[in-house]
Amino acid sequence: MTDLLPTSRSTLRVAELFGPTLQGEGPSAGQRALFVRLSGCNLDCGWCDTPYTWDWDRFNREEQATEMAVAEVASWVVSQGTDLVVITGGEPLVQQQRLGALAAQLAGAGRRVEVETNGTIAPDERLIAAVGTFNVSPKLSGSGVPVHRRLRPKALRAFRDCGKAVFKFVITGPADIQELVELQAELDLGRIWVMPEGTTESAVLTGMRNLAEPALANGWNLSPRLHVLLWGDERGR
């Protein structure tokens, strides 16, 4: 699961840099964006669509994780001339200290920074100051991860209270919907997006149709997986 941290405080372990492309999920879906995908994760979701960021039983870490200077990553982003940059993973906050340095540099260069996170690690003040939006995606029972590992109420409250978080949930079926109803009542998470699990056009469209009525009934927003609808399961899109 979690990759070892970089050997230097000025570097990040990076799985891939790509874009410009279109943000596929959540409130920024459809917006032109760059992606910085970091390596390493503290969870092992059964339906994960980026296992090459953490599953070293199936993937070669030396091939999939590159140690890059924070300044080098920031330079690449700025050179692309795209306003929105999405930092994702894996789980980016595994590398929080180095991530804060990158986010600060990008914000200082006038970029809008979104961080996609599973919500198990609370953000520190430096990261909160630099990030425009945290797309927090806590994992539900359909992930196959034990609840004590995937849901950390203290961390989720820290995201909620920072004023910069939206919450996005992958739904695999009715059990996930019921768990989300209960979690929403317990933690008062505010703005919620739901989206179906799936890496094919047919799975995403069927899932969205199944989620439309529950979303309306519970006051949730419905997110596509736009990148899947456009490009299937193609990596780097």
From TrEMBL:
Binding site for Mg(2+): 50
EC nos: 4.3.99.3
Classification via CDD domains: Radical_SAM
An individual GO BP term: tRNA queuosine(34) biosynthetic process
Catalytic activity: 6-carboxy-5,6,7,8-tetrahydropterin + H(+) = 7-carboxy-7-carbaguanine + NH4(+)
Stored Gene3D superfamilies: Aldolase class I
Binding residue positions for S-adenosyl-L-methionine: 47-49, 90, 137-139
Cofactor: [4Fe-4S] cluster; S-adenosyl-L-methionine; Mg(2+)
Pfam families noted in UniProt: Radical_SAM
Pathway the protein takes part in: Purine metabolism; 7-cyano-7-deazaguanine biosynthesis
InterPro entries given in the database record: 7-CO-7-deazaguanine_synth-like (IPR024924), Aldolase_TIM (IPR013785), rSAM (IPR007197), rSAM_sf (IPR058240)
Subunit structure as annotated in this protein's UniProt entry: Homodimer.
PANTHER family per UniProt: 7-CARBOXY-7-DEAZAGUANINE SYNTHASE (PTHR42836:SF1)
HAMAP family: QueE
Protein's name according to its UniProt entry: 7-carboxy-7-deazaguanine synthase
Organism name: Actinoplanes campanulatus
